[in-house]
Write a structure and sequence with these properties.
By secondary structure, the protein is an all-alpha fold. It folds into 2 domains: 76 residues, Rna Polymerase Sigma Factor, Chain: A (Orthogonal Bundle); 90 residues, Arc Repressor Mutant, subunit A, CATH 1.10.10.10. The chain is built from 10 helices and no strands. Helix 2 runs antiparallel to helix 3. The protein is globular, with a radius of gyration of 21 Å. It starts with 15 loop residues before the first helix and ends with a helix.
Length: 204
């Protein structure tokens, strides 16, 4: 059912659900109202966790940008307050994981491949491998991607991931299995077989 658009509507009077419905129809005034209503609270939560104003602002902007990009498919389950509380948590985890990606993955890769001869490693440079892996990971659904990054980049156990994201260990296991299958399928034709196996082993 189409929602009629009234240019005289006072969006400040709408409930969270009302704003979410208008947002799904791409109405910028609804998005602006959500931003004005919640940005300061989101910023405070991010700043308290990061203890850095600049990075907190970046987190807030990224969260709202993602909300606008996904507006057509957005569905509000509870309230925007609870939605943003979770969004801040996931965004900070993602940013933390990305900061450690290069050094952590490089160290793990070369520790595992000490016994592989140089001629094999020359077939594919580390930068090419990193780029191919990152592109493959980015194609995963958001939650699955986050679980995989915590396992691969921060070396979290399944139990630690479940606690961090407030999900069951079974759900973590399912996400990791999905990620391994996806990466083997997407990289298997371009990477040496032992490197595909390595990626899978790191997520076990």
């Amino acid at each position: 059912m189409n929602i009629p658009r009234d240019i005289m509507m006072d969006y400040s009077t709408l409930s969270d659900n009302g704003l979410a419905e208008r947002l799904a129809f791409g109405e910028e005034p609804a998005f602006n109202e959500i931003y004005e209503r919640y940005w300061s609270g989101v910023f405070l939560v991010a700043r308290n966790r990061l203890n850095d104003d600049v990075e907190a602002e970046e987190v807030v902007q990224e969260i709202f940008c993602k909300l606008w990009r996904r507006r057509a498919d957005f569905q509000l389950e509870k309230t925007f307050r609870s939605y943003f509380a979770v969004a801040v948590k996931y965004e900070i985890i993602n940013r933390s994981a990305k900061k450690r990606r290069e050094t952590d993955f490089a160290d793990q890769l070369f520790r595992t491949n000490r016994d592989i001869d140089d001629s094999t490693l020359q077939l594919l440079s580390f930068n090419e491998l990193k780029k191919a892996l990152e592109e493959s990971i980015c194609l995963l659904p958001d939650r699955c991607q986050l679980v995989f990054r915590l396992r691969l980049e921060k070396d979290y156990s399944q139990k630690q991931i479940a606690k961090e994201l407030d999900i069951s260990e079974k759900t973590v296991e399912t996400h990791l299995a999905k990620a391994r299958k996806h990466i083997r399928a997407s990289l298997g034709s371009t990477l040496p077989f032992h490197l595909v196996l390595l990626v899978s082993m790191l997520a076990n």
